[in-house]
Amino acid sequence: MKTNPGNFFEDFRLGQRIRHATPRTVTAGDGALYTALYGGRFAVQSSDAFAKAVGYPAAPVDDLLTFHVVFGKTVPDISLNAVANLGYAECRFLKPVYPGDTLSTVSEVIGLKENSNGKTGTVYVRSVGSNQRGEEVLSYVRWVMVRKRDEGAPAPQAHVPQLAKRVEPSGLGGACPAIDAAKWDDGLSGSPHRFGDYARGERIDHVDGMTVEEAEHQLATRLYQNTARVHFNQHSEAQGRFGRRLVYGGHVISLARALSFNGLANAFHIAAVNGGRHVAPLFAGGTVFAWSEILETADVPGRQDVGALRILTRATRDLPCTGFPVEDGAPDRPGVVLELDYWALMVR
Amino acid sequence: MKTNPGNFFEDFRLGQRIRHATPRTVTAGDGALYTALYGGRFAVQSSDAFAKAVGYPAAPVDDLLTFHVVFGKTVPDISLNAVANLGYAECRFLKPVYPGDTLSTVSEVIGLKENSNGKTGTVYVRSVGSNQRGEEVLSYVRWVMVRKRDEGAPAPQAHVPQLAKRVEPSGLGGACPAIDAAKWDDGLSGSPHRFGDYARGERIDHVDGMTVEEAEHQLATRLYQNTARVHFNQHSEAQGRFGRRLVYGGHVISLARALSFNGLANAFHIAAVNGGRHVAPLFAGGTVFAWSEILETADVPGRQDVGALRILTRATRDLPCTGFPVEDGAPDRPGVVLELDYWALMVR
Amino acid sequence: MKTNPGNFFEDFRLGQRIRHATPRTVTAGDGALYTALYGGRFAVQSSDAFAKAVGYPAAPVDDLLTFHVVFGKTVPDISLNAVANLGYAECRFLKPVYPGDTLSTVSEVIGLKENSNGKTGTVYVRSVGSNQRGEEVLSYVRWVMVRKRDEGAPAPQAHVPQLAKRVEPSGLGGACPAIDAAKWDDGLSGSPHRFGDYARGERIDHVDGMTVEEAEHQLATRLYQNTARVHFNQHSEAQGRFGRRLVYGGHVISLARALSFNGLANAFHIAAVNGGRHVAPLFAGGTVFAWSEILETADVPGRQDVGALRILTRATRDLPCTGFPVEDGAPDRPGVVLELDYWALMVR
């Protein structure tokens, strides 16, 4: 058979290394579409002039655009037969990506555990995105629940990897050049609040809401060459679990990040994602809101220019975040759809 | 508070100067999206080869894309608490913008007048967009009705600026290099009609209509980093004045300009906007038509290559322009949504 | 009249040459939008690094993007008053197109035949797209049924051109540089199946389906500066034949091609289109599926690096292609919407 049926649970082997198609050159065109899809306003990614003034050679590609492109490549091999995307961990941005760079992805199977029902199992992979010079730009672990092709296939020896609860602050600076904080123009960046102005426990309602249209999430997900069927095919999804197309979870992450500018304007770089959960599905027509809590503030070893904020951002659907809502376990009502625990760098 | 509540009427001071976030590098990606959103066919903006042949170093960015990017930056500071966008005047394009240029905006408060109800007031600002070399590329005045935070706040001394009814022809050439009219290829530009073929009083129905989708105007408005809430948030707008999201007025201007190619193909450059009014709201699902009247033809002092047409373009919703409709004061029926009085340069 | 009424059947003359507006510089922005619209994953067009490794100077523009841009220019002159787009033939890609190239189109009328009803006639044109150096990049014939303005206008001498049933294999290599097959990385390209693995008569279900939204096909068609009214104007189409906007047929071609990656990943270049028919209309909300049959396999004279597959791709609406459906003549039911007979080059 020449078409790709995707891998089933019993097709994965511990230690297996999978090189993914298709390499992708990221361009200024992708950057423009990314802005049109989410409306991001972080100055470093928006302006070559601003980026150069503070120490970048040019405006880098948005960190999450890099994530989505690297992630998209893994879908045909890892999650085409997935039932659920269970989580992320140890996600680190290692080098900045600039327009013109070509990204490709390799994954390694680092854990396998069949479920007791014998129909599915959890696959853990570490995926690494590299540029055209072979330099690693992004590394992350995700785990997904994947169907078995044949329920009679023997279960592999269970192996669940030990994953860090959080990325250590020493691992946060790789994708950020030295920033000249004196050249950082708060008027242009949109906020006078720098690293020292944020404290552990602080909560920020990002105020604004953004309604998602079918055309928007489809454009986004195709831009990332993510082929998961649930996002595009109303004909089949009409018969499916939800009766409709499901918005790519990464689309929600990008919306929440763009909304977070209102309150975190100087948190210019996502350095790492400690963990993430898509708590409930999002569908077109839903309006996404977000709020953030500062979990931790940390020095980055060896860096005087920037500090790190560990931020827990929750995105909701059809629920403004004035009251800082948390998950309440009601999947069919307005409520939390995303919890994202990440490290952002902020200028001092 | 770290989030931006926007300025209220009593926050503005006459002579106040506001530097706006976020600087924005305009790229070929923005140009492609602009074409996809409106379908513009003016040869100078569409083709590097055409632009170079007639005297530009490369195809410039569409004038209205420049306008929208410069305008978008002002929204978080000027009009987040606006009730209505009342008008524009003295809008001049001063330098061409090319892909790779970075735009930023500074505004000055040039007028203030509290309304007699004590709840709102009109704020007049002159906004200037500049490129990465600090050269001014665009200057315009707009006035908006803004809510007061505290109705008890004292009214400022009323000051209403004197604004020109029209930009003088001597001020029109700044963003247009010398055009080699002999190299202007009417076959490629789409029309044999040049400056001398248009006369005062002439009316042109632009024939075609364009239906607007929610995803389209949202993509456009985010591309311009315009954060006005009424365009994006169905959850809150469902409870609002119209029960639905409002299309950014600039989206209508760009649609009308693109439609005007059919009849004004050689009017390659918007040199100035004398005035503009959003007569009625537009919503997704509406179909935009447009017609134009030539108000004036003028020489541009010192220029033999181009002449200036002063054009009044009216855009309508759900109303073809065969009968050259004008405003009739019925906001809930098909009818005029935009009146735009502008100067275009046309090759002689 | 300064607006373009389009040409009617009696306006065309055998041998007439029509230079079309508007020249168009194709950029990386167009490439990004093309990816967002269709989700293509062919490695040569997606990655500069991959393209350079195998022998291109850079990633070329997608062949069908070139087609749509060249085609779009012909609409205002050829098919504005068309009743139906009847067919394509002798379509050859002659030179690769790269971001930065400017495309323009010239057509020649090569056939005319009035219909017996005296109200319409068939116009045959050969359209040639060229780049900024005057090099031909694409040539194709299409024929359309066009209305007469005046039913009393005399019928021209009927002339129906002889058109090749298929492009000869000797004419297929022009837009493809020498490919270094040893550098072709099957892991990155997405499939181990090369030219020798495909056989005449083989049928491939491309599995996936893609639902089309109004905003998507409107964005696409405007990107190509295609001005056909049926695609954009719900106000007039509500009164028309279908009661709704019609999706540009080329949008369906691009969707089918993108879907065909799943089974034809190494068919990296469309070298020619032998024929194409839009069997039934597509509307927003429809889900497109596709399947392909290998009609022929051929050597390309003088080329050891690549072979040619003649492929018949059928696209359907709301009908998965597991059963390899063919046209059954039921226009209002799920079924075939497109038959496209084309030559693709595949690495050996």
Write a brief structural summary.
With 348 residues, the first copy, chain A, is α+β, with helices and mostly antiparallel strands. Chain A is built from ten helices and twelve strands. Chain A has a single domain (9-347), classed as Thiol Ester Dehydrase, Chain A (Roll).
* CATH architecture group name of chain A: Roll
Assembly state (oligomeric): homotrimer
**What level of helicity do the residues of chain A show?**
10-25%
* Tally of helical segments of chain A: 10
> Secondary-structure element sequence of chain A?
EEHHHHHEEEEHEEHHHHEEEE
Strand content of chain A: 25-35%
What is the count of β-strands of chain A?
12
Largest sheet of chain A: 12 strands, antiparallel
Describe the protein in words.
The structure is a homotrimer of 348-residue chains. Chain A has 348 residues and is of the alpha+beta class. Chain A has one domain (9-347): Roll (Thiol Ester Dehydrase, Chain A), CATH 3.10.129.10. Chain A is 20% helix and 30% strand. The first copy, chain A, has helices spanning 28-38, 43-46, 48-54, 63-72, 75-79, 186-189, 214-223, 234-237, 249-259, 261-264, and strands at residues 17-19, 24-25, 82-93, 102-114, 120-130, 136-147, 203-205, 210-211, 269-278, 287-299, 306-317, 335-347. In chain A, strands 1, 2, 3, 4, 5, 6, 7, 8, 9, 10, 11 and 12 form a twelve-stranded antiparallel beta sheet that branches. In chain A, strand 10 (287-299) and strand 11 form a beta hairpin. In chain A, helix 1 (28-38) packs antiparallel against helix 7. The longest helix of chain A has 11 residues, at 28-38. The N and C termini of chain A lie far apart (57 Å). The model of chain A has no long low-confidence stretch (mean pLDDT 97).
